[in-house]
Amino acid sequence: MTAQPRLAPHSVVSGRVGESVQRPDAVLKVKGDFPYSSDLQVKGMLWGATVRSPHPYARIVSIDTAQALASPGVRAVLTHEDVPGRKVYGLEIPDQPVLAFDVVRYWGESVALVAADHPEQARRAAAKVHVDYQVLVPLTDPEVALTPDAPSLHEGGNITRQVRIRRGDQNAAADVVVIGEYEIGMQDQAPLGPESGLAIPDGEGGVDLYIATQWLHIDREQLAESLALPPDKIRLTLAGVGGAFGAREDLSMQAHACMLALRTGRPVKISYSRPESFVGHVHRHPGRLRYEHGATRDGKLVYVKARILLDGGAYASSSTAVIANACCFAIGPYECPNATIDGWVVYTNNPPCGAMRGFGSVQNCYAHEAQMDKLAAAIGMDPVELRIRNAMKTGSSMVTGQVVEGPVPVAELLRRVRDVPLPPSTTSDPIDLTEMPGGVSNTTHGEAVKRGIGYAVGFKNIGYSEGFNDYSTARVRLSVVGGRPRVEVHTASAEVGQGLVTVQAQIAGTELGVSDVVVLDADTVVGSAGSSSASRQTYITGGAVKAACEAVRERVLGLAQSELGGRHLGDAHGLRLENDAIVSAKGAVVLSLATLLGEEVIEETREFRPRRTSPLDPETGQANAHLQYAFAAHRAVVDVDTELGLVKVVELATAQDVGKAINPQAVEGQLEGGAAQGLGLAVMEEIQVKDGVIRNASFTDYLLPTILDMPPVRMQILELGDPHSPYGLKGVGEPPTISSGPAIIAAIRAATGRPLSRAPVRPHDIVDTGSRGVRS
Amino acid sequence: MKIDCTVNGRSRTVDGLWEGESLLSVLRDRMQLPGSKNACEQGECGSCSVYLDGALVCACLVLGGQANGRTIVTIEGLMSGDALHAVQQAFVEAGAVQCGFCTPGLVVATHDLLNRVPEPSVMQIREALAGNICRCTGYAKIIEAVQLAALRMAVHERTAR
Amino acid sequence: MEFLQPSTWSEALQMKSAHPEAMPIAGGTDVMVGINLDRQRPEAIIDLTRIHELTEWGMEAGSLRIGAGVTYSRIIGELGVRLPGLAMASRTVGSPQIRNRGTVGGNLGSASPAGDAHPPLLAADAVVELASTAGTRRLAAREFFTGPKRNAMKKDELIAAFLVAPANGPQQFSKVGTRNAMVIAVCSFALSLDPARRHIGTGIGSAAPTPVIAEEAERFLEGVLDEGGLWEKPAPVEASALARFGELVSAAAKPIDDVRGTAAYRRHALAVMARRSFGWAWDEYRAKASA
User: Fold this and answer.
1) Are A383 and A373 in contact (CB under 8 A)?
2) What distance in Å separates the CA atoms of residue C275 and residue A658, rounded to the nearest whole number?
3) Beta strands C63-67 and C158-164: pairing type?
4) pLDDT class for A768, splitting at 50, 70, 90?
5) Does C37 touch chain A (CB under 8 A)?
6) CB-hemisphere CA count at 13 Å for B69?
7) Residue C168: DSSP 8-state
8) Given a cut of 60, is residue C187 above it in pLDDT?
9) Is C182 in Cβ contact with B131 (below 8 Å)?
């Protein structure tokens, strides 16, 4: 047997659906005892390092590894020639090299690998891999990439996907027309845990990988292709994940660590540094959006025309799905009979972009909500009233023609955030600098500070779309341990911090009426759970756990009936599982589970598949493309130093329909944390790329909101119940990230009167500084 | 290179150190104390907060050799026996933990804050914890946890008197 | 990489003399970032944290002499009343974790144009004390910075201390960053009013290749105060004079566009900060005078 790293011990969870149950890993985490992927160590382990391209676009003339191989402590140096199988990978389109061959297409692309005894030896050797590049002119403007004359970065051209949506009258005219152009910068997920993992060769040609990922099985699928191994020779186990937010959907170091381990016959760990992490995962697509809204004088939308261009960067990742979302949700949660939406996502030599929380529905929300405010101003109507007047409701149609079922509380969410009492003005005497825009940096004592209030509402799909095979697998095992019934839940679903382990345990506890529930390590021993993304896991894996529990319950009740013969109390169909026992319809304990089961183990595995969705029609974009829709609204209150352009977000108010809060405390955490990421994109977070090179690949200059930047969030959580989903729940994680940022920018507009058509808003966007300076 | 120091009350010796190794690497890779986290390694995130001779510092910014002869307390050293410290317990209860990568640093920084300022205002909490980045929670439940811990520690203090 | 750990100041100076390429390290808040992120691999490092003298401060001929190894936290806690400008700047340095380690000596050694301690040192006419085995010399902070991340130190020198007179009038420090904590300055401004010498001191950070002063602005404001007899009878200063002061501060900067902000914004912000800072300082002076 090969060595195994220490993984988190399993803890028993007790709790029911609807309760704020403490997460079982919290105790380990507060003790510093929770093993994250970057913490793993085994005896004889080597450290991997990655040689990366210093150019955004270049031809690889030659790679010389001799000097690196001769460096102290080095055990292997690998290039694309050493990739055993398919040399490329990708979530939707396998276009990204495991290690670059022929050309590099972005700054920081992986070119070669080193394994050495010590990380410093690996780094020094990596610096000695000599790559001879013929530097090419990078294609960095997505508008240029769209033109037919642009050089093709991939076979088949630079358009990764084009989406066309045509709904209603394409020539509709309106009394009031507003036009706007918007630009959204590139946001990073910036999970605090770096990309990392440990690959251990099994001595029989296979490999065990302990990894922080969002989807074990899709990793394995891609690894099997590139390592040229049957899937069962590659076993993945989820190690502790330090946040994800989309950054761990694509492969990063997975194939690299496995290749080095298989080559050296030794365990190999790779853990990225923060600057490396910035080039080691995909980012949120930057976008350029042009909108035209037409409305009647009394504020009813007549048509929306939108042109959305997303920069996908060097490789496809999940771009094709992101642009579909950007187009499907382009107009926001509003009714509009006529729509013309054109979206493109293109290849450039910029950093690759893909999934991030909100997934295509974030960029467009900045645009459609700015347009709604513009329209309200043009008509002379209150902006919330305008939104309410056009709000989608149950039975409304999407621009894709899909009829939205179940509760659609758009107007209610808006009314609720509007009616939250406003926070008092911050004119405390003496002033507290921490409450001022600029904080303790002492830039204002109240001078030029103006307050602004802004609103936004957004929505997106929960689960996969366009016919993508959405399912999850759960294995549930009921047995008696130490005289007490115990449920073990086993899925491959990735706990990335969101609280999925707790949710699984709560569902099993609820369905089987058992106090002791243990959720086993997620691994590839059990069937796929799909990804921890699209806010889908509580719905889909939760649904699988529920289904498996129901199957177990049916067998237990069957067992109970045959055990009891005719001697049960009242109606046999009324027997239930509760409090570790079989209870009658009236709640009386009939038989303890421990007694009933004895040595018997009841185990069932189930797959859960929600309703199928359909691909968008390529010409009209009409389809029932989505499974479920989730809505949230935000009101932002900001104080702006209008002379210095500095912003203090004073308060966020939000209302969101979560269908059913499986774990209310965890739901609150999602609403608060999601809003913080929206705040980040609104006022500070941007990967700055110049000529294809990231200029701020560190936490010194890629700024994340601190505890002094994030205001209190006044939350209203609605549980309106979706008729189709388990317990009526809706996905929770993404909606808070969609409308929080647009509400903040609307508030800054209200405070300053400036158009602010770009996110994030920078101080120099707020103040008029006259001429521009000299570029460094 | 060799260093001797006291970590969480135990005297520890590490030999064969590369001279450029940070205290954070020494703790994580050589002392099997991975509780201090490696999120940025440039002092911007606070995930590696530890006490060095009683002062709250980022372990990533201390050179291994600088720790020679010093006393270090890490997140692994805050427990009192098997019981969670009040700060740790409050973080668990308040729901201040999601992915948890920032948690050890925040717990140590909160421990330090409440040692210095037993009953901090919200703004004092915010200023004291500004160097600890959390990407998951939006900080609201962290503030609740700090307040809860402060309250319990104050009650404990009063009843102990 | 060689690790040198002197335990006395004279040993440190000897080591630096023998290894002039060695990089000094104190709080590590700058040096360690370079090492961790593989941006620099110095041949040798001299650890100065064992040298007790560097962590001491005291009075010397009417000035404070503050060891290069005194941390920002101690400056705030122990010297906040006597050096309010430097203390305000120290409060904006990183986080508690950084302020517990970072030192003014390290800031001077790195000589980053964005170093937060530099503007208040310039504004207060501080003096930097440099030492080598050959002896000790003192250099005005205004002559210390020679280029981006370059200073007037010789290869064999270490920073022993800095000297600065305790404030005898109001001081201010103001810094623009794009979040409300934990920021490297987009630009910063320090102001020192010295009623005893009827002197105005300024310092500008992050808006030129080095930290700089706004000399013309200083003279202008001194003229305004002198002409109006305002030091003696402190009345409000006219808005036009304040605006002019801001313009002159702005004109003293030579900013560039970079990842943190644009040159035009920096010029604009400096004018605003200068105007506001003087307003706050003058209010304080007037309040004291009327008390």
Assistant:
1) yes
2) 50
3) antiparallel
4) confident
5) yes
6) 5
7) S
8) yes
9) yes
Q: Are A208 and A194 in contact (CB under 8 A)?
A: no
What residues form DSSP beta bridges with A78?
A113
| Strand boundaries in chain C, DSSP class E | 2-4, 23-25, 44-47, 57-60, 63-67, 127-132, 135-140, 145-147, 150-151, 158-164, 171-176, 187-194, 199-205
| Contact status, residue B153 vs residue B86, Cβ threshold 8 Å | yes
Strands A646-657 and A713-718: parallel
At A773, the pLDDT band (50, 70, 90 cuts) reads very low
Q: How far apart are CA A485 and CA A190, in angstroms?
A: 41
CA distance A570 to A466: 49
Hey, is the C-beta of B80 within 8 angstroms of any chain A C-beta?
no
Other CB atoms within 10 Å distance of the CB of residue C146: 13
| Residue-level pLDDT at A772 | 39
Residue C283: both structure tokens together: 């209010």
- Write out the E strands in B10-153: 10-14, 49-52, 55-58, 71-73
Report the half-sphere exposure of B108 (CA within 13 A, side-chain side). 34
Can you give the three-state secondary structure of A623-634, one letter per residue? CCCCCEEEEEEE
> Is residue C204 classed as helix, strand or coil in its secondary structure?
strand
A122 in helix, strand or coil? helix
* Of A453, A534, A451, A486, residue with least CA distance to A214: A534
For residue B115, the surrounding DSSP H or E stretch is: helix B103-116
CB contact under 8 A, A442 and C92: yes
Lookup result for tokens 């396998």: A94
* 3-state class (DSSP) for residue C228: coil
Q: Say if CB B99 and CB A243 are below 8 A apart.
A: yes
CA distance C98 to chain B (A): 7
Q: C278 is written with which tokens?
A: 């003087």
Mutate: best of B14, B66, B126, partner C, most C CBs <10 A: B66
Query: Which residues from chain C sit within 8 angstroms of residue A748, using beta carbons?
Result: none
Max Cα–Cα distance, chain B, nearest Å: 49
Q: How far apart are CA C186 and CA A282, in angstroms?
A: 28
Give pLDDT < 70 ranges for chain B: 161
Crossing angle, helix C263-290 and helix C239-252, to 10 degrees?
140
Whether the CB-CB separation of A605 and A529 falls below 8 Å is answered with no
Residues 104-123 of chain A with CB under 8 A from chain B are 118, 120
- pLDDT, tens digit, for every residue of B50-95? 999 999 999 999 999 999 999 999 999 999 889 999 999 999 999 9
Distance (Å, rounded) from C-alpha B84 to C-alpha B145? Answer: 14
Instruction: With beta carbons less than 8 A apart as the criterion, state whether A73 and A118 touch.
Output: yes
Which residues does B20 contact at the CB level (< 8 Å), separation at least 6?
A120, B63, C1, C35, C41
* ipTM of predicted complex: 0.98
pTM: 0.97
- Angstrom CA distances, C155 to A577, A627, C33, stand at 79, 68, 22
Residue B124 contacts C where some CB pair is shorter than 8 Å: no
Closest CA to A153 of A389, A347, A372, A375: A347
